[in-house]
Amino acid sequence: MILLLSIGYERSTDEVVDHFLYNKRKFLRINCDNLKDSEYFDFHLNLSNQKAKVGINNTELRLDEKKVIWYRRIRRRKNIDRFLDNKIDFHNSRLFTQLVFKEWELFLKILINSLSLNSLWFDYPYLNKDKLDILIIAKKIGFEIPETFITNNVRDYADGNFITKLLSGSISFIHDTKVYTTYTSVVKKVRQKFLPALIQQKIEKRYEIRTFYLDGECYSMAIFSQNDKQTKVDFRNYNRIKPNRTIPYKLPQEIEEKIKKLMDELNLKTGSLDIIRSTNGKYYFLEVNPVGQFGMTSKPCNYKLEQKIFEKLVDYEENL
């Protein structure tokens, strides 16, 4: 059995599903944002004997059956304020929202544990290493990394030679009809009081490299983001009118070998890695996202990663 763990209208999942349908291979897709619908999802766990029952669209899963699970997405952020009484004040609304998300996160972990019986994960959803842990591991493996600091006193770094980013990862906010996203920024002017932040040496780059790692193979793309003021610091601050030039890229073998060591250490079969090629010719590792977008690398470079993921899943199923 092959399970695809995702959310509805997730483009990368949709395109992998196309290959299953075209090749007439059996699979089951579970859209986790539909799990709150009792007509779609049925769950029962007996803690006394640790036996679980999971049903999708009135079909009960055989949890004892050998299966390969591709984890693509399990969360979709939703605003639940519209379900609250208008008389609830901001403070209680915030606390209630936190309660709902905590409960849902805990349940998702229970569900993942239930599905894990006789399963090969591609990959397990809960990586036990955060961004800083991964930087330390990458450094030990032999990667160059930018000088990195965690501090709440950045007076010595506000000279334009350092950048800052969130410790946890990027997030988007929706206000009215506009979306506001947190990006990597150059440290120039700061307030006197703020939470400890991640500060890194700003690397002067020739170009950025996005590498999608798939079970031992690296598929890389060079992004010439430094040629555009809007994307120079963070290429995710996309210029929709004049997009960055991107081309297929082959990393040196020694860098690909380090990537494989890193992904083995993290127990990951897939992930998107961000690397900078500096003006002095060095390769600097920045981070790895286990569920990073791969369509942005696949299509411009004609890597056909959606098909390759399908083939990997089928191959693993046949060899269980």
Automatic annotation (TrEMBL):
Show the InterPro entries listed in the entry. GRASP_w_spasm
- Cite the GO molecular-function annotations of the record: ribosomal S6-glutamic acid ligase activity
The record's Gene Ontology cellular component field reads:
cytoplasm
Gene3D superfamilies, per the entry: ATP-grasp fold, B domain
Q: SUPFAM superfamilies attached here?
A: Glutathione synthetase ATP-binding domain-like
Protein name per the record: Grasp-with-spasm system ATP-grasp peptide maturase
An example GO biological process term is:
SOS response
